[in-house]
Design a protein that fits this description.
The protein is of the alpha+beta class and about 120 residues long. The protein has a single domain, classed as 2-Layer Sandwich (Beta Polymerase, domain 2), CATH 3.30.460.10. The protein is built from four helices and five strands, in the order H-E-E-H-E-E-E-H-H. Strands 1-2-5-4-3 form a five-stranded mixed sheet, sandwiched between helices. Helix 1 crosses helix 2.
Length: about 120
């Protein structure tokens, strides 16, 4: 898994995606194991990043299960990895990082209560 995430991050970084963050959700009772979020420089850059990921990950035998591409936000489902490519405006508006952090805190709190 670590190598797969590194491959994704390296592709995004080499193509000038900004503020790339990864989140390990494997022990958080979340529907994927890993989440990658990156900021695009706009709609065309997001589409270009998607194309670069398709090309770069094809050789790594990654399967793109679903792609939801909107003007400002592209979501790529690799099954156990979810990639969000977002414009700066959408990233600040939807603040997925905060949601994931809250999910982490909820899971830790639940674990403490169960112990």
């Amino acid at each position: 898994m670590k190598q797969r995430i590194e491959n994704i991050v390296n592709i995004l970084d080499s193509k000038k995606a900004e503020n790339i963050q990864t989140f390990d959700m494997s022990d958080k009772d979340y529907f994927v194991s890993q989440v990658v979020i990156a900021t695009t420089m706009g709609e065309r850059h997001g589409i270009s990043l998607l194309d670069d990921l398709k090309k770069g990950l094809k050789d790594k035998d990654e399967s793109f299960l679903h792609i939801d591409a909107e003007n400002e936000w592209i979501v790529i489902d690799l099954g156990d990895i979810l990639i969000h490519l977002m414009s700066p405006q959408y990233r600040s508006q939807y603040n997925i990082e905060e949601f994931l952090a809250q999910r982490d805190a909820e899971m830790k709190k639940q674990q403490i209560l169960e112990d």
